[in-house]
Amino acid sequence: MSGNKASWVMVCKGLARMILHSRDLRRKMLLQLVIVLVIISGLGAWPLANWLGDSVWLFLVWWGFCMLYGVMIILLALYDMASVVKEERRKHFEE
C-alpha cells in the first residue's frame, strides 16, 4: 500500500521539474524571488540594522544568507537564459 504513495522528495522533484520546464513559471518564480530578496535586504539595512550591528555573528549570518539567496537567484536566471537560447535555437532549426 505504501508503494503507491508519493514521498515529499518525489513531490518536490516534480514541482521543480514543472517550474524549470515552463518559461512562464520560471519568470514568475524569478520575480517573486527577487521581491523577497529586496525585502530581506531592506529589512537588514534599516529596521534590523541595530540588532544586526550588536553581534558580528548575526551580521555575518544574515548577510551571508542574503548573499547565498542572491547567488541562487542568479543561477536560476542563468538557467532561464540558457533554456530560452536552447528553445529559440530549436525553433530556428525546425523552420
Topology, please?
Blueprint: H1 8-21, H2 23-45, H3 49-54, H4 56-94
Helix pairs in contact: 1-2, 2-4
Report on this structure.
- There is one protein chain.
- The protein has helices spanning 8-21, 23-45, 49-54, 56-94.
- The longest helix is centred in the C-terminal third of the chain and has 39 residues, at 56-94.
- It is 86% helix and 0% strand.
- The radius of gyration is 19 Å and the shape is flat.
- It has four helices and no strands.
- The model has no long low-confidence stretch (mean pLDDT 93).
- The chain has 95 residues and is mainly α.
- The chain has one domain.
- The N and C termini lie far apart (49 Å).
Structure summarized in a few sentences:
Helix content is 86%, strand content 0%.
Please tag this protein with its features.
0% strand; 95 residues; mainly alpha
Strand content: under 5%
Structural class: mainly alpha
Q: Which sequence of SSEs, written as H and E, runs from N to C? A: HHHH
Low-confidence stretches: none
Q: Give the integer mean of the pLDDT values.
A: 93
The count of helical stretches stands at 4
Number of strands: 0
- The global form is flat
End-to-end distance: 49 Å
Radius of gyration: 19 Å
What percent of the residues sit in helical stretches (DSSP H or I)? Answer: over 70%
Largest sheet, in brief, is: none
Overall tally of structural domains:
1
